[in-house]
Amino acid sequence: MYILVTGGAGYIGSHTVVELINHGYKVVIADNLYNSSFDAVARIEFIVKQHVPFFNVDIRDKEQLSKIFETYEISSVIHFAALKAVGESTKIPLKYYDNNVNGTIKLLEVMDQYNVKNIVFSSSATVYGDVTRFGDNSMIPIPEHCPNDPTNPYGKTKYVIENILHDVYNSDNKWKTAILRYFNPIGAHPSGLIGEDPLGIPQNLLPYLAQVAIGRRDKLSIFGNDYNSHDGTPIRDYIHVIDLAKGHIAALEYLHNLQNDQGLFREWNLGSGKGSTVFDVYHAFCKVVGRELPHEVVGRRDGDVLDLTANPKRANEELKWKTHLTIDDACKDLWKWTVDNPSGYNIDNYSWKALSANDLSNRSHTIKVDDTFKVSIMNLGATIQNVTYKDAPVALGFVTEQEYKNQSFYIGATVGRYANRISEAEKLKLSVNENGNTLHGGKFGFDKKDFLGPVVKRNKKENSTTLEFYLLDPHLENGFPGDLGTLVKYTIASGSIEIEYESELLGKADETFLNLTNHSYWNISTGSSIDGTKIKMATNKALEVDSKSLLPTGKIVDREVTGFAKGSAGIDTCFVLEQQSVQSVDTRSNELQTVLEATHPDSKVKLVVQTTEPSFQLYTADHLDVPGKFGPRGGFCVESGRYIDAINQESWKKSVILPKGETYGSKTKYAFESV
Ligand code: NAD
Ligand code: UD1
């Protein structure tokens, strides 16, 4: 059974989805991305290390909404989807009523049709209106029985929806309805991967202050210091978004614990019960940032009131929920989110497109570093799909997902769990896919899997962009022992792509073995063949292999290569850098070493390959054959990694065995320049 989360790509929704999954729930997200980005969903998946079904639908579209209920068995709905800007709602009230009220009506109709009658609704403390109207402080801190009197169209939509939900419950007592009235949500996920990303000028206190701190705004305006508080600024009940997210789990569990035929309509305040002034929050954030942030006290903002502090007793007692995190925690997490993502999810030189109509699990991600260099990488196989240097393609790749699925040449893919061949694979109980060997990870290797992510981040100072992809490969996949978590991090800078692999054994075995590489086919010529490419190698030492089995004999022999002349014999050889140890499972502390330089006299393009790895397979693809696309010697591969079949050679074995608690790692860099 799934929990449908409407608005799950938004600020509070994304944090709640993470908490739901951490608590063992299965989740489907519906969001029209009006005020959010699919990158938030990709990052949710990255945090929880699993795929989360996502539907790009407007909740007012009943037909599309019904498809979700057809596809997944939904037990309950958490309903966040709404427009939420108070100021904007006074300018375009009809849009607010249509989106929020009409959207909820459509959602309730579809839920009713599919007999799903559990709902947790995002309401707001704004329904109470100005509680100082009671004059005698009798309603501060605010209890749930405080009369409602919202003062703006946004607040009124929440008030109307609460009433609709009440009427629906009155008409059919099977509905179980939790109304959660949030006070002031702040902060971000401590990973720094998800957070609040307001469009345009932020209206709320902390998002604005964060943008001042990161240099996007000049100074904070403090709206009045003549209120009756300890420092003259208004009092609010700020609550960490993680605590708030957990409040939804508590409410959901409360509903699930009711007797089957026992309906409910009940409101709960989600707040800390502790009021803080604007200056309290300002000082807490300045402390985290480490400096005084520019600010100026200006006149009061229209509609602001002295004190909105929750009385959260009902939620504390009935939901067994209370806040645990402080304003200091929220400021720390907000600052991490801001520093790691100075412009939110929006990265100016990054774009993506879907590779199939209804499924965003495999997308093509493009980084345009500058006018000379552009790289596309997709989720399937964390594959390098396209590299353009000075307007010419320098790597082989396809456009559609199907083209990748139709071929068996690993074009541009991450190869795992084990690059190249493992002999006597049956003895190791591995998937056999070539003459008794496991080749490139077996029948269902990394190249055939959708990696999660990417998490895209821009480093403006270095003019580089990183894309991080993650794959959790389960125990005994292709026969390999242990759950294996692998991070593939691409750093794209001007003219260069650096690949970093990092793997950890997550369980079900005490050790496993692996060897990761990238299988890009480079072509720096001006034509469709690599003929004429000149090669300068850092080594002339290679593994001797048996000519029939292509497996190493254990000996190292001399092999001189200077280029790929027309008509010359193909190369498919593992070259070794004898000075690099074959004992280390994490080579990242080695310096990147230049292992090969390729140039072509016609294009005058040079490719320099560097790696921390002890060997690399140089392969001229003499058997490449994708009709109408790429023929023999259409590209050459430089696959850095560990020695071939190291797992079966006592003296090389250590480099491919990953014990639990240790980390596997390597780095390889491909750089282009003009000569
Ligand atoms: P948000 O804008 O970040 O998230 C709302 C999400 O709903 C967005 O991803 C948006 O694209 C989506 N959405 C909007 N209309 C939709 C539609 N018609 N169909 C499908 N998706 C739609 O806002 P948030 O801060 O995460 O707020 C979530 C909920 O909590 C809202 O209902 C809001 O009113 C309520 N709330 C928020 C606050 C706050 O301070 N953030 C306070 C009280 C209540
Ligand atoms: C506002 C909304 C409320 C919504 C909540 C959370 C109004 C009247 N209410 O509450 O419906 O639930 O956001 O989204 O808009 N402040 C400054 N300078 C700024 C911004 C804010 O001094 O640039 C002060 C405000 O005067 C206020 C406090 O900071 O005293 C908090 O403001 P804000 O974050 O906008 O939240 P609320 O006004 O409490």
Automatic annotation (TrEMBL):
Keyword Transport attributed: no
Cofactor: NAD(+)
Annotated Gene Ontology cellular component terms: cytosol
CDD domains xref list: galactose_mutarotase_like, UDP_G4E_1_SDR_e
Domain of life: Eukaryota
InterPro entries the record matches: Ald1_epimerase_CS, Aldose_1/G6P_1-epimerase, Gal_mutarotase_sf_dom, Galactose_mutarotase-like, GH-type_carb-bd, NAD(P)-bd_dom, NAD(P)-bd_dom_sf, UDP_G4E
Ranges of residues in domain NAD(P)-binding: 4-333
Pathway stated in the Swiss-Prot or TrEMBL entry: Carbohydrate metabolism; hexose metabolism; Carbohydrate metabolism; galactose metabolism
Signal peptide: none
PROSITE patterns: ALDOSE_1_EPIMERASE
Entry annotated with the keyword Zinc: no
Catalysed reactions, semicolon-separated: UDP-alpha-D-glucose = UDP-alpha-D-galactose
Cited SUPFAM superfamilies: Galactose mutarotase-like (SSF74650), NAD(P)-binding Rossmann-fold domains (SSF51735)
GO molecular function: carbohydrate binding; UDP-glucose 4-epimerase activity
Gene Ontology biological process terms from the UniProt entry: galactose metabolic process
Keywords: Carbohydrate metabolism, Isomerase, NAD
Residues annotated as transmembrane: none
Sequence similarity: In the N-terminal section; belongs to the NAD(P)-dependent epimerase/dehydratase family. In the C-terminal section; belongs to the aldose epimerase family.
Known role: Mutarotase converts alpha-aldose to the beta-anomer. It is active on D-glucose, L-arabinose, D-xylose, D-galactose, maltose and lactose.
Name under which the protein is recorded: Bifunctional protein Gal10p
Organism this protein belongs to: [Candida] railenensis
Organism taxonomic ancestry: Eukaryota, Fungi, Dikarya, Ascomycota, Saccharomycotina
